[in-house]
Structure to design on (414 residues):
């Protein structure tokens, strides 16, 4: 069994990853926590029987102590990853870091380089690599079941209400406070595409904008908050009362208030960010974006990220010299259409846990890495490279220029 500490007891840290210890206490035990929110810190400490002297209100407090344990999970907000990670690497911790590594490309590189130089684990939570669904897809592509891969159409269907929750009202709404949309939501996809293609991305181009979730599109009669007597709340697709208050007792409603009662939830909607009208927020991240990627093995990728779907799902078509693979993650099906006429449908095994078991599997793999001092399915440097693809895509969107990755990376180092 390994011992671990958690920095950042938010939704991902507390429920997605650390909850693994409650189900597998023989494998991992949490012995310390750092979290500025007193309510969350107390709840986490209670769940994991952490004594008061091991509860800290800041990451600085935890990392000022002699090394408390072997492993450390860092699940703070995006802009709060770099400093605790660099300090924890110096302390000797083996680290599991929530994605993205940092909202700044140079910091992402520096973190990876430091982990490599010190010989420490720095595993980034690219959960899709651990999903049984995408692991199966990777095996099929490595077997060249459709011949040589030539082109890929890949769509991230964010979902209209998920966009409103996370990227209009939520923590990742404003790129200055968190990250650009392509990094926060789609660094998974950039990592996945890099992994599946098996090559280095050499050029990117991108277009996209924030078009719908703006004050200019606010319906007549709308108010700053859904609880302020909005005249169109009953008809609004994005009503906070519908999404978080009425007969909702699980995610995303539990993000609004830790206490599972309507009184606490209504108070949070009246005072906190999730009660705001989606047309009257301080969001600036895009609600739709496309990107073209060229790899050094001549594979081309057309990537689409959009809020304007019913699905919250990834769909794709991978085209090869002898057939194509079509996928719909939500249906857990991988279809192989051979040009000969043969058709196969594969249904990967499912694992219990968030993100179709990926949250469980990444924790399981991290524990093995700590025990064996081995690298898992990805390294910090590989993750940093996929982040740089996302940064380059955003640079292209903002400048309107095609970006050559080598030039972009050299520019960061100069």
């Amino acid at each position: 069994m390994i011992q671990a500490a958690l920095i950042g007891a938010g939704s991902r840290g507390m429920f997605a990853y650390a909850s693994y210890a409650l189900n597998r206490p023989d494998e991992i035990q949490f012995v310390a926590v750092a979290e500025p929110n007193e309510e969350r810190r107390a709840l986490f400490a209670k769940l994991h029987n952490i004594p008061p002297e091991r509860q800290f209100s800041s990451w600085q407090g935890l990392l000022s102590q002699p090394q408390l344990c072997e492993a450390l999970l860092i699940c703070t907000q995006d802009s709060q990853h770099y400093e605790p990670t660099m300090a924890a690497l110096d302390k000797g911790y083996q680290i599991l870091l929530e994605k993205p590594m940092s909202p700044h490309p140079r910091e992402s590189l520096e973190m990876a380089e430091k982990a490599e130089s010190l010989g420490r684990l720095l595993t980034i939570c690219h959960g899709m690599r651990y999903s049984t669904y995408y692991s199966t897809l990777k095996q099929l592509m490595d077997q060249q079941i459709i011949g040589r891969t030539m082109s890929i159409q890949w769509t991230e269907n964010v979902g209209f209400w998920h966009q409103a929750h996370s990227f209009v009202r939520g923590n990742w709404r404003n790129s200055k406070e968190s990250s650009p949309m392509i990094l926060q939501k789609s660094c998974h996809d950039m990592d996945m595409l890099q992994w599946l293609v098996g090559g280095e991305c050499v050029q990117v181009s991108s277009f996209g904008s924030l078009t719908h979730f703006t004050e200019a599109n606010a319906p007549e009669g709308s108010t700053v908050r859904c609880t302020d007597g909005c005249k169109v709340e009953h008809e609004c697709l994005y009503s906070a009362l519908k999404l978080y208050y009425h007969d909702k007792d699980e995610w995303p409603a539990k993000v609004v208030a830790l206490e599972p009662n309507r009184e606490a939830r209504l108070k949070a909607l009246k005072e906190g960010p999730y009660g705001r009208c989606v047309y009257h927020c301080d969001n600036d991240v895009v609600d739709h974006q496309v990107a073209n990627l060229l790899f050094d093995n001549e594979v081309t990728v057309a990537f689409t990220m959009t809020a304007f779907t019913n699905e919250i799902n990834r769909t794709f078509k991978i085209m090869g010299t002898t057939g194509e693979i079509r996928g719909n993650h939500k249906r857990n099906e991988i279809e192989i259409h051979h040009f000969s006429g043969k058709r196969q449908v594969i249904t990967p095994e499912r694992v219990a846990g968030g993100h179709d078991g990926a949250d469980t599997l990444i924790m399981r793999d991290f524990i093995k890495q700590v025990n064996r001092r081995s690298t898992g399915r990805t390294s910090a440097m590989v993750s940093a490279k996929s982040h740089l693809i996302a940064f380059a895509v955003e640079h292209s969107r903002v400048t309107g220029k095609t970006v050559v990755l080598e030039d972009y990376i050299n520019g960061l180092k100069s």
User: Anything to note?
Assistant: The mean pLDDT is 93. The domain at 2-126 is CATH 3.40.50.720 (Rossmann fold).
